[in-house]
Amino acid sequence: MVAYLKKAYPMPKSELVYRTPFQFVVAVILSAQCTDKAVNKLTAILFKKYKTARDFAKADEAMFTKEISSIPFFRNKANAIIGAAREIQARYARGIPRTEKELVALPGVGYKTAHVILGELYDVWEGIATDTHVKRFAKRFDLTNNTDLTKISKDLEALIPKGDWKYVNNGLVLYGRYVCPARPHDCAAHPLTKLWPPAALRWPKAK
Q: What are the recorded GO MF terms, alphabetically (predicted)?
């Protein structure tokens, strides 16, 4: 599986659009249970007004909440984004933290988000971020028996050499987005299913 991902997606990058490091943090927080397409549509406008952690830290919370109201769980995300911005302004003069421990201490940042940020901004791959795409394929290809996202990450990290961790999240996200989507379909002919044919039996087929 990893060999295919390395060949198909040799330069793993997020499809979230951003210009500054904190804008990427914001985009990742917004993307929880939301498509990158919807996030990019929102941030195309939002990021013209808010560029740095300082800008977000100074945001009026009621106004900001309204500005991101097209996104699921926008109230919680508004609190998290403004809280994270203020925390970074108060504690991290050097900018976005560079360790998992520091990142997960920020509002709205868990294991998955922390490792997406570390990989994208710093090319640091100290963990495998598990989102809905990674979870779906990990279960279908018998790579985990867990349902908790962090536990799935730990299972994958135990199976996959650390040097290849960088290819897993973005690779499976792109594969799930453009090759083997979540909607019911026959995936028997897809590249990864050919490597593990039993996966096709677990995929809901279109009626």
A: 4 iron, 4 sulfur cluster binding; DNA binding; DNA N-glycosylase activity; metal ion binding
